[in-house]
């Protein structure tokens, strides 16, 4: 009987030591200095990684590239090449700008929310929707109308005097730039015969579009600000998505299953200490 007790006592100790090693190792990996890297002004840390980061660092879904002149670049498969303007670790967002965008011309490729919402988008690494499915982007439209559009409370700007539109888009005195602000196209005041020639996205906050007193400089600033995407799905396994429940607890969901995103390491750590 005594030997049995000793056996279990020893076994217990072995398990505790094993758990300690396990949790120390996992915890250590996450915190390892070598996993945090800099690229220009950007701090790159979990879940982001550079192509040449050590294998155990970051998350394979969030690979960035640090290129000449310390430019941080995201190659996002469906769309191409983007400058990373900022990574915000406080609210799980990343702000991007088209690689070929310059202050006096429209970006070469049109972009709308629809580019991010096809297929199984809800579990994709980057989302145009933030928490509670609030859109983080607003459309910028380049519009041609048969009549000169009235300068209304809606934001409108005569395009050709403001930015250089590429030759591939028609331009004349009735071209304008409009900002969406979650309005449907009819509520944007586009009359019959108006054509949307080009669409782009911004996350610039213009006070609900209630400010008609903006300049060309403002327009350029809005376009060059870029757009934000959420990477909160990094908190969940691949194929799952992150959301806030009614109590503002972050959870992961997959096929109707709910799971709290508690780190397994912290549970272990708690048990052991
Ligand atoms: C990057 O990290 C360093 C040290 O962790 C910190 O001092 C610095 O403010 C950070 N910079 C940015 C842009 O977050
Ligand atoms: C967004 O989708 C449209 C329509 O499918 C496509 O023409 C455009 O090139 C896409 N934008 C980018 C940046 O890939
Ligand atoms: C996220 O944080 C950045 C920097 O603090 C801020 O500029 C941005 O507006 C925030 N985005 C959202 C969606 O809260
Ligand atoms: C975008 O920029 C790259 C690199 O400067 C260039 O090779 C490419 O032709 C540009 N694409 C467009 C559509 O302007
Ligand atoms: C611009 O609008 C005016 C009326 O406001 C119209 O007479 C003119 O034909 C329009 N120009 C073009 C190129 O559509
Ligand atoms: C358009 O581009 C030309 C040549 O690059 C430049 O001289 C002109 O000032 C630009 N116009 C605007 C409105 O930025
Ligand atoms: C827009 O501005 C006007 C005048 O400044 C104000 O009365 C109105 O409440 C504003 N609307 C919104 C939605 O902020
Ligand atoms: C519009 O902007 C101009 C220049 O910034 C300023 O002088 C003017 O007071 C503004 N008007 C309103 C109504 O805000």
Brief account:
Its main location: membrane. The chain is an alpha+beta fold.
For the record, the count of structural domains works out to: 2
- Major sheet, described briefly? 6 strands, mixed
How many whole angstroms does the radius of gyration measure?
A: 25 Å
Mean model confidence by pLDDT: 75
Number of separate strands: 15
Cα shape: globular
Q: Give the helices and strands as they follow along the chain.
A: HEEEEEEEEEEEHEEEEH
Class derived from helix and strand content: alpha+beta
Arrangement of strands in the largest sheet: 3-4-5-6-7-12
Proportion of beta-strand residues:
25-35%
Q: What helical percentage do the residues reach?
A: 10-25%
**Terminal CA distance:** 29 Å
Give the names of the bound compounds. 2-acetamido-2-deoxy-beta-D-glucopyranose
Uncertain residue ranges: 17-31, 256-273
Q: With helices defined by DSSP (H or I, 4 residues minimum), what is the helix count?
A: 3
GO molecular function: polysaccharide binding
Pfam families: GUB_WAK_bind (PF13947)
Domain Wall-associated receptor kinase galacturonan-binding: 35-98
GO cellular component, one term: membrane
Mind explaining what this structure looks like?
The protein folds into 2 domains: 2-35; 77-260, no CATH class. The chain contains 3 helices and 15 strands. It has helices at residues 2-31, 216-225, 264-272, and strands at residues 37-39, 42-44, 49-50, 63-67, 71-76, 80-88, 93-98, 138-144, 156-158, 175-179, 195-202, 227-230, 241-244, 250-254, 257-260. Helix 1 (2-31) packs across helix 3 (264-272).
């Amino acid at each position: 009987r005594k030997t049995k007790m000793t056996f279990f006592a020893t076994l217990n100790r072995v398990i505790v030591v094993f758990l300690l090693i396990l949790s120390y190792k996992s915890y250590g990996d996450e915190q390892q200095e070598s996993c945090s890297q800099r690229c220009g002004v950007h701090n790159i840390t979990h879940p982001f990684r550079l192509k040449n980061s050590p294998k155990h660092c970051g998350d394979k879904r969030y690979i960035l590239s640090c290129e000449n002149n310390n430019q941080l670049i995201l190659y996002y498969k469906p769309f191409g090449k983007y400058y990373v303007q900022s990574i915000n670790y406080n609210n799980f967002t990343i702000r991007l700008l088209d690689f070929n965008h310059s202050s006096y011309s429209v970006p070469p490729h049109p972009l709308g929310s629809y580019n991010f919402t096809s297929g199984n988008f809800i579990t994709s690494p980057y989302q145009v929707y933030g928490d509670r499915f609030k859109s983080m982007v607003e459309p910028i439209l380049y519009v041609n109308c048969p009549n000169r559009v009235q300068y209304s409370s809606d934001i409108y700007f005569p395009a050709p005097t403001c930015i250089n539109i590429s030759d591939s888009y028609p331009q004349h005195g009735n071209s304008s730039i409009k900002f969406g602000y979650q309005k449907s196209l009819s509520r944007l005041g586009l009359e019959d015969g108006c054509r949307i020639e080009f669409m782009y996205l911004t996350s610039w906050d213009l006070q609900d579009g209630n400010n008609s007193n903006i300049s060309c400089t403002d327009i350029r600033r809005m376009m060059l600000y870029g757009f934000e995407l959420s990477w909160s799905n990094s908190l969940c396994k691949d194929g799952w998505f992150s959301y806030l429940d009614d109590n503002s607890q972050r959870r992961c969901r997959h096929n109707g299953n709910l799971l709290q995103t508690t780190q397994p390491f912290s549970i272990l750590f708690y048990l052991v200490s």
